[in-house]
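Note to self: the last two entries modelled the partners one at a time, which told us nothing about the interface. This time every component goes in together.
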Amino acid sequence: MGEFKVHRVRFFNYVPSGIRCVAYNNQSNRLAVSRTDGTVEIYNLSANYFQEKFFPGHESRATEALCWAEGQRLFSAGLNGEIMEYDLQALNIKYAMDAFGGPIWSMAASPSGSQLLVGCEDGSVKLFQITPDKIQFERNFDRQKSRILSLSWHPSGTHIAAGSIDYISVFDVKSGSAVHKMIVDRQYMGVSKRKCIVWGVAFLSDGTIISVDSAGKVQFWDSATGTLVKSHLIANADVQSIAVADQEDSFVVGTAEGTVFHFQLVPVTSNSSEKQWVRTKPFQHHTHDVRTVAHSPTALISGGTDTHLVFRPLMEKVEVKNYDAALRKITFPHRCLISCSKKRQLLLFQFAHHLELWRLGSTVATDHLLHLKTKGPENIICSCISPCGSWIAYSTVSRFFLYRLNYEHDNISLKRVSKMPAFLRSALQILFSEDSTKLFVASNQGALHIVQLSGGSFKHLHAFQPQSGTVEAMCLLAVSPDGNWLAASGTSAGVHVYNVKQLKLHCTVPAYNFPVTAMAIAPNTNNLVIAHSDQQVFEYSIPDKQYTDWSRTVQKQGFHHLWLQRDTPITHISFHPKRPMHILLHDAYMFCIIDKSLPLPNDKTLLYNPFPPTNESDVIRRRTAHAFKISKIYKPLLFMDLLDERTLVAVERPLDDIIAQLPPPIKKKKFGT
Amino acid sequence: MAALEEEFTLSSVVLSAGPEGLLGVEQSDKTDQFLVTDSGRTVILYKVSDQKPLGSWSVKQGQIITCPAVCNFQTGEYVVVHDNKVLRIWNNEDVNLDKVFKATLSAEVYRILSVQGTEPLVLFKEGAVRGLEALLADPQQKIETVISDEEVIKWTKFFVVFRHPVLIFITEKHGNYFAYVQMFNSRILTKYTLLLGQDENSVIKSFTASVDRKFISLMSLSSDGCIYETLIPIRPADPEKNQSLVKSLLLKAVVSGNARNGVALTALDQDHVAVLGSPLAASKECLSVWNIKFQTLQTSKELPQGTSGQLWYYGEHLFMLHGKSLTVIPYKCEVSSLAGALGKLKHSQDPGTHVVSHFVNWETPQGCGLGFQNSEQSRRILRRRKIEVSLQPEVPPSKQLLSTIMKDSEKHIEVEVRKFLALKQTPDFHTVIGDTVTGLLERCKAEPSFYPRNCLMQLIQTHVLSYRFFCLSLCPDLMEIALKKKDVQLLQLCLQQFPDIPESVTCACLKIFLSIGDDSLQETDVNMESVFDYSINSVHDEKMEEQTEILQNGFNPEEDKCNNCDQELNKKPQDETKESTSCPVVQKRAALLNAILHSAYSETFLLPHLKDIPAQHITLFLKYLYFLYLKCSENATMTLPGIHPPTLNQIMDWICLLLDANFTVVVMMPEAKRLLINLYKLVKSQISVYSELNKIEVSFRELQKLNQEKNNRGLYSIEVLELF
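The predicted structure of the combined assembly is written out below.
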């Protein structure tokens, strides 16, 4: 099949930020995740847990709470005291509103979804009315002594529970006054030594309030009498999060020791109607604090400082044994953070606040050429280096940067292209043409800009405006090597193909149910290869405006079941310049070359064969050979591309290296007393 | 939980029920409909859910129905016999019974039996059986006589077992009962004689039967008010021979024996029976549901207007004649559990029914015919399950044994017990053993000089299986007496056999074991299997000295020079070795103490009792434990030699317990000082071992890291990838 020289790169020092909040939306089966750097990500659990959208973070915006309201609207609140709403179509922040209560620690949407409650540093609980396009302050509840760390509505919407330091308050929503104040026992391991922080509360419809606190307790309170009903000591450290199932028959808590406990309401004896809460299952999928948990109908979702997002399916709720029944751990973003200049063998790494440029060479001389730090508090959304290596472009939420690089022997000089036009303020995706003369920018208004680059200057050529009535942002771009075709894909509305020469829309690839995770246009044939989150791969001929025969054959026969069961999306597709029948693609755990000239594997054939076929006659080899050539040597694989005909570059990020950069976890004794 | 629901009366029309009650209630081919045949001329088809009759048929004046109408499930027709020999077959559309199909038979019919899935059978009064179809083909065919003269069929039931129809009928002749099992397919008729057992003059009042894979379980309600069970094999070993069946007592005194009215018994499912009758002689009649598995009364319902002593059960309905009208009581039974049977499981109680709890109290003596059992205790329930298809000896040995216990000499009792044990597998073996021990202990209490030790030993040893109720109920008395007599041998046996000795008793045993003199120990015959002959080792004293110092769990006390006590100790290394290598107690005592170490306990309950032990005994025990610990640490597996030695955990736990309970006392005793120092060192060595382990763990982690780095090929490498 082929031999490649592989540059195996492990110096991409990328550390994802820890997960702070998760919020599950039952209606759309989506999960919103916020990280400690303020990034908010949207995962579509129906689309194979694909991270379909993200909102870049901001240094001053520490998200402390995240919630869905009014169906599909997403709100967040944080320590800067602001409540924000996200525009899930245009992928920007709709507005930010100061709650005037100091840092916000908690937020909860009412059961009807029409009201929003925030708990502030100054001890106030503020009620906001959600209007169709904004939120409106309605009133304050009785002010408490200390910060409100957790909030929960009674399912009827008449009362709320608020967890604070050392106590839990129950408010009547109508009057806004505190009905009960329940003091939480401060005792920690038998010693009363510090304040007891109520990290989470949950109000059940029968009036029970469940609280989790820093003394390691899960407690059940009767809200009618304000008395403690039951207490479970489950950890030596803080219990930091709680989430209750919609049916209120099970809930999940996460501790600072990295353990997630499942509690279930089970009958006292078989056939009896009397039920009690029982701690049923502990799960240890995290090494660090579990800062947040969510309870979907079929799974427990947890995230924390160790940056993993873990989906633990509840086996009793899973009806079919498919891949939803498997434990899923998401660590890396489902987009490409690396771009590569083939000509000069350069790699551009994108971090939250800086870019790094490295030159590949021999093993002894790998140069860190450039460290480019952004100005301002905003995270980088996207970045790109031109194939010739002389341009670097990146964008934050408010600014677009373009740099010209000059190489003189071993020295490198950088010059920023100033005077960017006003419409080039922010980009979701940047792409250079193969000959580095054109720059394509997908702006967050839905427009696609084409910029001509020549010498040290640039010229705006054209803007493809989004079709009227849609505001959907384009997040993926692909350009044909001859520079004639540009493909752009949004989160849901299919792939548009533009003719760059004639500056008009050429065609639209038929819409598919699952979002696009990667796409690329093949040289010469101009076939567009599209990978979707359900692991399907399509090949679409742009000139013919139809799927290719190979693609139809693949769809007819179907992919190998093991191929469909992979749980990370394909994030990059490329082609071999000399072998038109080959498609190179990779996900986080495998690299694959699809040889279109070979027969497709069926479910009986071995998809992945790690050993070379030895001692076999040519006939057998030919008979067993199939189109998918897979290598699993490199993992976790963040980027893989062809530098030239015989050279590949693979960027790995071993998990151990990430763990090494995290703060140490709570130490547990192994031996002795 | 079984529950009787609100009753309802089927018809306001008064049925012409004679003194005998109804002839029968039978199922029809529709689930909710039942055929009721009164003792006169009428058959009524009732729909139970609507509580009203759907149809009614009568025979002509002067004729009389002699056999309840049944439904032929295969054709949907109804079959009835009037005037003993005239068979009538009709269906729903027919109005007048005179005009329907009629067949006159050559012999008198006892009953027609029909169950779902097979053709009805006709049982003649002489015991012959015919299929209905075969009979109708030639109604005048000759019917043979099966049963003898004066034998009368009392009861019959028809089952389908593995698609084979099986018919059972019971006959009576001069107070003797016989069971006939007819395999209809194979035409095998087997006759059994039902042995009535102890109570010869009892009359069986009602029968019911249920069937499982191999046996028909025939339950009978006797005139003494007890329910007996007889297991009848479906496939007899030898059909030709006349076999006897023994009945065993299932429930005792469920109804009053001398009730005026009839009593009836019906099996509801595998575990439940319904009994109709008055629980006490004077009281009103009652329908009660009993759980035979747990021997508890599940529910009962008073029937103040009296019944005919007949009870039918189909589907989920119980039918009976209450007063003058046919009453239906829906019955529901969920899966029974022990918690439910004991009332731990909450369940809603119908206001109409009152639940009488009849739990078995195992503490009181069981059995029948025991002299010291008063009349009140006769209501206790006994359960014995054992069938013997053989003739029973005339006088049960258990009875003999029990009478022996009450009066004979120790020697004689011993012989009797041995005899009884040789017999062993009598159906009520366990209960008889229990009764015997109780009897013996009663007598022990009454006569201080009476102490049948060998007997008791034998009896305890019979229980290779832990038979909990026996232990639970008898342990206190038995061990109490053994403690009083200071019978260490018996106590050791008890400690070994009983799983549930209270901590206070364990502690009392310990006290005796520690305080008993060495000379008196010599005389006893203690089980020595848990003790290894430690003296053998002491021959190699020199070698041992080295070993103990090196192998104290990997810790060498000599290294620890900072401790003052150590220096003092090091001055007398000779003493120390002697002390640690020779067993501080004699072997027999060691065996006894090992029994204590093996016994189960709960710390909280044991601690207060340990405080009562005198200080010198505590030190002695501690010394022994310390000695065992040193022996343990001599080998790598940390175990003691021997067949059933105490484990290291048991030893350590007991050291901790003893010190916890008596620390202030022990610490004041000068002679215990060295021991305490030794123990202190022991703890210290443990701690240092653990700290070493922690260190090793850290080193291991570093090694692991190194190993990982080896796998890490650095931050950057150029490799060759071959795809094939």
